[in-house]
Each structure stands twice: as C-alpha cells, then as structure tokens.
## 1
Amino acid sequence: MTIVLGIETSCDETGVGIVRMPDSGVPELLANEIASSVEEHARFGGVVPEVASRAHLQAMVPAVHRALTTAGLTGRDVDAVAVTAGPGLAGALLVGVAAAKAYAAAWDVPLYGVNHLAAHVAVDTVQHGPLPPALALLVSGGHSSILAVPDLAGPVTPLGSTIDDAAGEAFDKVARLLGLPFPGGPWIDKAAREGDRNAIRFPRGLTGPRDAKHDFSFSGLKTAVARYVESLDGDVPVADVAASFQEAVTDVLTLKAVRAAQEFGMDTVLLGGGVAANSRLREMAEERCTAAGLTLRVPRPGLCTDNGAMVAALGAHLVHTGAQPSDLGIPANSSMP
Ligand code: KG4
Ligand code: ZN
C-alpha cells in the first residue's frame, strides 16, 4: 500500500490530491483540494501568468495542509510525491515543482515529475478503477488530441490534434463574443440548456472526405460564430448560438473519437480535460459509443478540470508499476510534448 500526494500548478488552479494505492492496484482518492485564482484573471479575459504564479505561491502550503487533514494523514504517512512537470505556464509550473521537491526532500520520499495530459487520463482510475487500453480524447484549454493509450505508465501514440485552437479555447473565445464571463466553457454549457441546438448550422471543421482524419480545427467555427453575431447588429439569441456552437464542437469531437477507436481497434474511449466536463459532450459521447459498441469512460466533471487528484493518480500508478522516480533536480518543462 502506498500513499501518493500529487501537486498540480500548470495553469490557474493550485491542486493537491492524495491517493492511496493498495497492492490490488485499485486506487482510492483520499483528498482533492483546489484553490483557484480564476477570479483574479476574469477581468483580463484570460489567465495572466504572473498573477497565477503568485497565487500558487500563496495557496500551496495551505492546500497541502488541507489535503493532509482531509485525508486524516500527516506528512510522515506520504510515501511519494508527484507533480506536474509540464506542459503549462512556466512560472506556474515552477512553483509546483519547487514545492514538490521540497516536500519530497523533507519527507525523504521519491519524487515523480509527470505530464499534465497523462494525468488528465489517469484521473479516471480513481473513479472507475484500472484503465484498459483506451482511445483518449483529451480536450482542455490548451490541447485537443486523440491519443492511443495502451498503458498509463508507457508511451502514448498521438493520432491527431488540433491544427489551430484547442476546443476549450474555442469555448472561451465564443463565450467572450456572447458577453459571457471567463472561463467561458461552463457558461456556454449553462446557456445552451435554454437554447435550440439546431437553430444555426455552424461548420464542422475538418470533416470532409479529404481532411486529416483525426485532426481538429476550431478557428473556422469561431469565425463563423463571430460573423453570425456581427450580422445581427445587437439582439443576439445567446442561448441558441451557445447551443448551436456547442453542438458543432461536440459533433466533431465525438465523431472523430469513435472513428479513431474503430480504426485502431480499441474497445474503450476515455474523455479527459476541462472540456470533458461539458454536459452535451458527455451525453453525445455516451450515445455514440453505445451505438458503436464501445465502452465510454469519463470522470465526473470535478475531476475533468485541472486538479491535484489527477497527478496523485498518475503518481500512484507509476509507483505501483515500479517506474523509476525522477531526479530531485528535474526542471519544469512548459512545452513538454
Ligand atoms: O483542463 P483544464 O481545466 O485546463 C487546461 O489544462 O487547459 O481545461 C480548461 C478548459 C477551459 O477552456 C474551460 O472553458 C473548459 O475547459 N471547460 C468547459 C467546461 N468546463 C470547463 N468547456 C465546456 N463545457 C464545460 N462545462
Ligand atoms: Zn488541464
């Protein structure tokens, strides 16, 4: 049995999670503390790196204390520390990596520097247990990728990614066009519930027969929404635009994820990243996976957006599978592939 504490600071959430990994390999989430600086960024319409770094610095030690208290543990009970080493905002990552090194050194336990995107995939194990080989659709503010994940601890095969905006970025930009607050994804999700998803037929990027099969493009869609909104001269039906835009994004994401799973012979589709919290995406993925005979795995919304549990979950898997710990000198790598 191993207790792993995970630290996440790649963007604007200071996350500290604690996972217990028994010898059976079925992880258990003991704590998941999050302190967000999102409100400090809202008035700028996007995350301000310097503000995020300072907020991490202030939130870090209290968040570790809260997580230990919630789990009913002390630092002496922790067997390993895991931390997001990249990708993400350089200054923000540095705070987490420095803190993780300090805790690992003070508690005299191994340190595991992990990839943020792999952690978005790994978090599902604390809700649904060990992951079989899966086709992962990772959709966040910075990434939109289709990956073949044979094993969490091993190399993944990128099958496709966005050629312009990430899905979350498209949600945030369209929300801004509609006068909704930052970050826009949850607001679009909410507004769309009152709207007609078939009201406006927005373009589905890269879905033509000659287009790159597993890649995404959302900038044309964003421009189409901008043109539509401009053409109305005020009086924008926000709920209908939100619902129609969301329908276009989720249509393409689920179409491509199912197609890739079928092409590469994978029985399980896993959704991860902040956009996987989207209610319509979850609903459509369930419908299309069921129709295609695929098993869908998607963590609860609170585990899809950035958090510390995802890092602890991946760390616990690495310890369980006997992976080599990182050197205490590991750098933060903002552009980690
Ligand atoms: O994974 P995440 O928390 O941070 C990154 O690694 O980027 O993802 C944040 C993104 C933001 O763009 C946010 O608007 C989007 O996830 N998001 C959503 C929803 N909740 C968060 N997008 C659509 N629907 C949601 N319910
Ligand atoms: Zn993320």
## 2
Amino acid sequence: MAEVLIVKTQEEAGAIYAQAVGEAIKANPKLVLGLATGSTPHTAYQALAKKVKDEGIDVSQVRGFALDEYAGLDPEHPESYHSVIRREVVEPVGLNPELINVPNGALETLPHAGADYDAAIEAAGGVDIQILGIGTDGHIGFNEPGSSLASPTRMKTLTEQTRIDNARFFDGDLSQVPTHCITQGVGTIMKARHLILLAFGEGKADAVAASVEGPVTSICPASALQMHPHATFIVDEAAASKL
Ligand code: GLP
C-alpha cells in the first residue's frame, strides 16, 4: 500500500513537497522533476519557489518533464500546458526553460510525439520525483479510466467529465475545451522513482479512496500507484474522508 499523509491545509502539503524536492536538488543539481498541471500543485510550486529563494538553491541545471498537453491547442494559448507550466513552475521557481519539456500536442507530429517524449525522458535518466494531481474519475496525467496500466506516452481522447471539469479554465465554455490530448502513459509515470500525489477537497474523496484502497484496475488509473515502490499520497481531510 502506498504511504498516505493526511494534512490540514494545502500549504502543509506544499511544504512537504518543497522539502523533498529542495533537498533532492541540493543533493543532485541535475535532478529530473516530473511536473503536473491543474490547480492542485499550485501551493507545492509556490512553496518550492520560496524554499529555493530563501535558501539560495541552485536550480539552473534542474530538468523537467510535464505530464501532458492538449492536442491541437496553440502552445502560446494561455491554457496550454506549455503556458501553464511556464507560468506556474518555471518562472516562479526560476528553472531554466530550455531544460523543461512539455509533450508536443501539434497535430502533425502526434503519431510519433509520444515515443519521442518517452525517449527523451529515458535519455535524461528517468524522472526522479513526479508530482501528480488526480482527476475526479481517478485519472492521472490524462490517463482516463480504461487506460492500460502499462501505457506509454500517447494521444488520448478526453472524457466528457474531464472536459467539463476543465471548462473552468476556458471561460466555462465546454466548446473551447480540446477533445484530445497527449499524455505520459501510466507505465511512463510508474517509471519515476518517487511519486507524490496531491489531492484536496471532497470532490476528490471517491477517487482517493478508489486509488488507495480499491482494486488495482485500469478503471481507476491512479490505483496503479499501489504497485509503485515509492508512492506518497498527500491529501487533506476532505479528500481523505472516504478512506
Ligand atoms: C487535469 C490534468 C491532471 C490533473 C487534473 C486535476 O486533467 N491533466 O494532471 O491532475 O486535471 O486537476 P485539478 O488539480 O485542477 O483538480
């Protein structure tokens, strides 16, 4: 079973993430970070930015790989994950943008973009610490229910539920939410050496319970974390309420 830490506030969760990552960077300045989007990691990135600044940690050589990207959305669109990762992590933490990778959602190269991305992760020596959020249906990255637990990075169709959940980032207009994406596979994510999954709020309680205590099944992609040698769930009391 994965380790579960129940915290009172998102700030507390962020501090645990920042401590783990900050210390790991001190020990290995070329650390490879796995990055995630969504609203959940925000406080973790803020806490890391503060720790890096307060302690003068050199992050100039830190490398990063984001989990996913919308397909066919201009990378300069404010809600593309290229933009979100730049705004939420790269700029506040002061990472070198040239060392931070986001899957390429351009339609022309989609057929091989997944394999190219996995090859790049492998060439970097693999991800050391991967931060994860979780969808209300138990998805990680954009691996929707039914995704193979051995899947590589590839194109996927977004479920209606995920598009509805994410419409808030597109002025609440569902028609603006892309229908497809490119995402690290569950198999890709599972290769990271340490997984830290954050979940806050009652809306995530069912997904957290299914992931931590339910059967390991592709119907709940996050349940794969039960098989990982070093996975940590950091959840608030509301997200833990169905455990
Ligand atoms: C999107 C992302 C996931 C993220 C999820 C939850 O679907 N692809 O990586 O975990 O949203 O988002 P939030 O953290 O905003 O609840």
## 3
Amino acid sequence: MQQITILGATGSIGQSTLAVIDLHPERYRVFALTAHQRIEELARLCLRYQPRYAVVQQAADISKLAALLHYQGTEILAGTDALAYVASHAECDTVMAAIVGAAGLLPTLAAVHAGKRVLLANKEALVMAGALFMRAVQEAKATLLPIDSEHNAIFQCLPAHYGQGLTQVGVERILLTASGGPFRQFTMAQLAAVTPEQACKHPNWVMGRKISVDSATLMNKGLEFIEACWLFNARPEQVQIVIHPQSIIHSLVQYVDGSTLAQLGNPDMRTPIANALAFPERIQAGVSALDLCQHHLQFYPPDEQRFPCLALARQAMQQGGTTPAILNAANEVAVAAFLNEQLPFIAIPQLIETVLTQLPMSPADNLETILAADEQARQLAQRALSRY
Ligand code: NAD
Ligand code: MG
C-alpha cells in the first residue's frame, strides 16, 4: 500500500490524481491533502478520503476546515512548514507535487530531500531551481517522475538508463509538442483584444487558470522547454518545439539511427498520472483507448513573432543562474494581472522582458539567492505594471 501526499489536492491535477487513486484502493491510500483557498472542497475530500493530515495555507482556515469535518482522525495544519512536513513525513511514500507556481518549490524540495517518490506536476519549481533541485534528487536518492504530459511521454520514449546522458544512449533530440493554445491562428490585432475568459478555454485540455494562460501565450511551452533540459539533462539545442494542434502525440524522441519514438493517447492527465503512480508497472487510468481513425495529425513550426515567450524562455535557460527564476516570477505576476484585467494579453511578454532586462543574473547555487531573485522580480514586475 503506497501512502500518498497530494500537494494541491483541490486543483485540476489533484482531482485527476484522486480519480486514478479511486480506481485502485488496494494500491494507494491518501496520507495528506493540501489546499490554498477552496476550503469547502478540501473538506469534501477529507470526508471522502479521511487522510492523516489536511494542510491549509492560512492559520485562520484551520477552524473553518475543522468545523466542516464531522469526524476525528484528520489533523489540520497550516502554512508552508506544514506543507513541507507532510511532504517529507516518514510514513508517506509518494508525493504528488501539484501546487501551481513558485509556492510549490519549498514543499516539493522537502519531498526530494526526504528521498520520496516525487511525481512532479509543479514545473515552476524545476524552472526556478533546476540545478539545485536535480542535485538534491541525486543526493537524497529521490525518484523523480514527470507528470507534465510531454515530459511523461519523453520519459516513456527514453531507455531506462537515459541518466547516463542523452548522447550516450543514442538520442539526437527531443521533440516537445505544443498544441499552440486557443490563439494559435490569431493575428497580432486579434491577440491584442483577447480576454481572460477566452484564454482559459483551452481547445484540448481542462486545466487551472494560470497554466491555461501560459498555454495561450506559449510560456507554458517555454517553461516546459526549461523543464525538459533539467529532467533529461539535455542541452537547449537538443530540445525542439513542434506545434501539434490535436495534442494526440504528447512528445517524441529522435535517435541517431533515424528512429523517432512517440507516445500517443487521448489528451487526459490521468494517463501520465497513472504511469507515474504505478511505474514501472501499468495500471488502469480510466482513459479510453485512442481511436487513430478519428484523428488527423498535423505539425507546424512555432511562430516566435506572435508568441515571444518561447524565445524569452530559451534565452533564460541559456543565460542560466537566477534568470529562469526571474522569468518565472515575472510571468506569474503578469498572468495574475492579465486574469485581473489589469494587463493586456500581448503585454505579458513585454512585462517579462522588462523585468529580465532590469535584473542582473546571479549564480543560482543556493535557495536564498533563488528566493531573493524571485522576490525582486515580483517587485519589479509590480512596479512595471503601473505603466499599463
Ligand atoms: P490549479 O490552479 O487547478 O490547482 C492548484 C492547486 O495548488 C490547488 O489545489 C490550490 O489550492 C493550490 N495552491 C495554489 N496556490 C497555492 C499556494 N500559494 N500555496 C499552497 N497551495 C496553493 O492548477 P493545476 O492546473 O492543477 O496545475 C498544478 C500544477 O501542475 C502547475 O504547476 C501546472 O503547471 C502543472 N500542470 C498542470 C496540468 C493540467 O492539466 N492542469 C498539466 C501539466 C502540468
Ligand atoms: Mg504540458
């Protein structure tokens, strides 16, 4: 029986994780559930799964949650230290890291340091602290399994010993697929007028609001590019982005002998979640099999003129140090402002670029430097917002 902590249980990935766990009560038991704002939803999940711990963000929410639970046995805690506590607890085996944004970094790192099996959905954590994060995985002998559908696909297409280095195992490049988002065919003039409502309606996936906006600007693919470089120890030039609007092929790996391996499936996050939960075994995910005759698959190169976030992310990865953390923080502020109707859609990459050009990069060799860069970038981005 695997004991599982779900960081971000009330979110889109959290709910899909619980849906897979529901199919396998003999294999998985919910150890801890955490949430930020939707306390009623967290209460509903606690009543259903009766976890050992429930963690909220604000201390004031402890009594709110307690009042909604009609049983003893779930201990309620609050704050980031409590998130780290349930992620590193001796009785927990597996941690689903599904908090959105930089808020997920410390609890995810706590799970890594404790040598857990870490299912990583929270790509922002790896973007911010890639070198430090991957070093901690090695030192603590944690098992890191990618949940992002593209990275899970790549993981499935690589040989087991890929950790030796991509070149050593005969890989020429990774092809990272992107749907292109809801505005793939929009002109600049159309992009200038898009609303949060439109941006949150992804053609193929139902996701949280922040990642939906990231998918619309293609910053999601930029973050995933950085994520792929760290996860698979790839050089930036070994990762190529391909637009594939149907999201049926979730990514590919090209080998030196001319072979290209792909992972295909209906776009449903329960597939990568089940893959990572059971790895190296295979279990039911509740996802129907792909009917190839129903699909016409297309591929295009990305357009970096209309979607400048791609180039910003690639440059950030090439610069290294704290630059990816700065990119991520500026993006989080820009996306929140767009969702609040304080910033036009096309100003998202402009705001990020402003912050990147104003903040010098420093080596990202410790957590304090990374968190300081994150904080400085947020402050600069907030100040730059007043110009819009
Ligand atoms: P979501 O917004 O639906 O859920 C986010 C979860 O994090 C919620 O449970 C929320 O309570 C919690 N949370 C938010 N802010 C927090 C904070 N400050 N402190 C503690 N908890 C906080 O997001 P999602 O779509 O489930 O995405 C989660 C992560 O998974 C993101 O990093 C995203 O990029 C990644 N991801 C999501 C998908 C998807 O299909 N949704 C696919 C690939 C990767
Ligand atoms: Mg993805």
